[in-house]
Design goal:
single chain, 72 residues, mainly alpha, two-stranded antiparallel sheet, 4 helices, 2 strands, DUF3046
Length: 72
């Protein structure tokens, strides 16, 4: 997963404003007690960070892949 995909998923699930706050403020145990932003900055895989955020926020698994986007 690319970093841009991570942010698209975050924005789609939580909204653009809240997703940035969540990434900056929510400390996630599955990320070594770091925030998503800290984990990404340290080089963590965006997919692993996304899944850890989903688990921490109780996002239903059926939404982990994001919304369907029609091809152009």
């Amino acid at each position: 997963m690319r970093l841009s995909d991570f942010w698209r998923l975050m924005d789609d699930e939580f909204g653009e404003q809240y997703s940035r706050s969540l990434a900056r403020d929510l400390v996630v145990d599955r990320l070594g007690d770091r925030t998503a932003a800290e984990a990404l900055k340290a080089g963590a895989d965006p997919k692993a960070v996304w899944e850890a955020v989903c688990r921490a926020q109780d996002v239903p698994k059926e939404r982990w892949l994001g919304r369907d986007i029609k091809p152009r």
